[in-house]
Every structure is written in structure tokens, then in C-alpha cells.
């Protein structure tokens, strides 16, 4: 019998597009899907874990958190490298997890690193930005949630009105900036065979969830038989 590794599945998109909600639902679904029989993933995926980047719990992550909350300033190249270092520090644990046959659903990854840094006014070179993440484990799937800027603004305003405490926007949570970020994502997905774009405007959480789960089901067998690739190499 072939020993199968876990899948590496990344969710990407602008702030407020629903990545975190969908990531949680996917992990729940994969952990409760029957191993065999109707509705199963054919015994290919048994367990899944939720990972998130930036991981604000490490020493590097705490610096990033301060930066995002505007509690400190950081030179653009330096913060870009910290985001990448925050991924590299987790690579041994990530590979071990996949090797055990556990799938990882990741809420942001190197694509956020590139899109957000490249969207800055004093642009960091696209190629320069890529280098820091080159060689990371390559995701089997990148599920990109695409949201219009009108809908994005409506969601943010709702968050601010509904919050019992005043919602304080983080550094990058400005519509014009996020539009630029979406444009940078557009460059990243060109020519890639592992990206799937899911339009999320006016769709219910459940409909989007089923859409994502079907993409995973379609790819699970082939992905888990392959050796994990290296990103941008
Ligand atoms: P969350 O709102 O998802 O916590 O993200 N970011 C993220 C970068 O600029 N570079 C990166 O490498 C990553 C992973 C995106 C916090 C913000 O940090 C941005 C939004
Ligand atoms: Mg955010």
C-alpha cells in the first residue's frame, strides 16, 4: 500500500474575504469525513490541522504583531524578511506533520508575503521579494477567495459597527491598498496549475465551503501520492 502524506492547502485573499471562516470549516470537514464509503475522500485524508501565517505566537511573530498593530515601525525589506522567517521557522514541524499523513489547511502563506510587500508604494522588487520564500514546501492547492472592493468595504464597516469595542484597523486594512494587493495576487497566479479562484461576492458561507471541499476532493488522490514540491524553484 502506498504511504500517503498529508495535503498542503493554502487559502489566500484580501482581508475580510472569509479565509479564516473557510479554513476552520475545511479542517472540521476533513476531520469528520468518513474514511471509506459514500462521501469519503477514499481513505486518503484522515486528519487535518489549521495553521495560520503570520504565526503571532513565536518571538518573530510577536514583532510582526507589533508592526501590524502600528505599535512600531520597520523598514519594508526588514519586515518582509521577518514574515518569511516566520514561515521558515515552522518548516521542520510542517514537513513532519505532512509526513505523518496529516493535512494542513493554511490561512495565508508566502503569497501574502509577496502580494502585500509588492503592493507597497515604494515597491520592493517582485523578484527580490520571492527569494526569501524560495524553497518553502510548495502547496498542493492555493484556494484564492476573490472579493470585490465594494463588498470588502461593506464587510469592514459592518465589523466596525457591530463590534462591542471599537474595531481598530490593522496596518494594511485600507481598501485602496487591498486593491493593489489583489492586483499583485493576479500576477502570482499567472501560469500556475495549483491555483483555484473562487468568487465569494454574494455567496453564502456554506456554498463557498462546498465549492472548496469539492476542489480538495478532486485533488486529494494525486496530491498525496506525490513528493511535496519546493516553492518557486
Ligand atoms: P491576518 O489579518 O491574516 O492576520 O494577516 N501579511 C501576511 C504580510 O504582509 N506578509 C506575510 O507574509 C503574511 C503572511 C497580510 C495580517 C496581515 O499581514 C499581511 C495581512
Ligand atoms: Mg487581518
Automatic annotation (TrEMBL):
GO cellular component: cytosol; mitochondrion; nucleus
Keywords: ATP-binding, Kinase, Nucleotide biosynthesis, Nucleotide-binding, Transferase
Thymidylate kinase-like domain residues: 11-210
Pathway(s): Pyrimidine metabolism; dTTP biosynthesis
Keyword Amino-acid biosynthesis appears in the UniProt entry: no
Domain of life the protein comes from: Eukaryota
One annotated GO biological process: dUDP biosynthetic process
Documented EC number(s): 2.7.4.9
The UniProt record lists the keyword ATP-binding: yes
InterPro entries: P-loop_NTPase, Thymidylate_kin-like_dom, Thymidylate_kin_CS, Thymidylate_kinase
Regions that span the bilayer: none
Molecular function GO labels: ATP binding; dTMP kinase activity; nucleoside diphosphate kinase activity
UniProt record similarity statement: Belongs to the thymidylate kinase family.
Full protein name: Thymidylate kinase
Organism: Capitella teleta
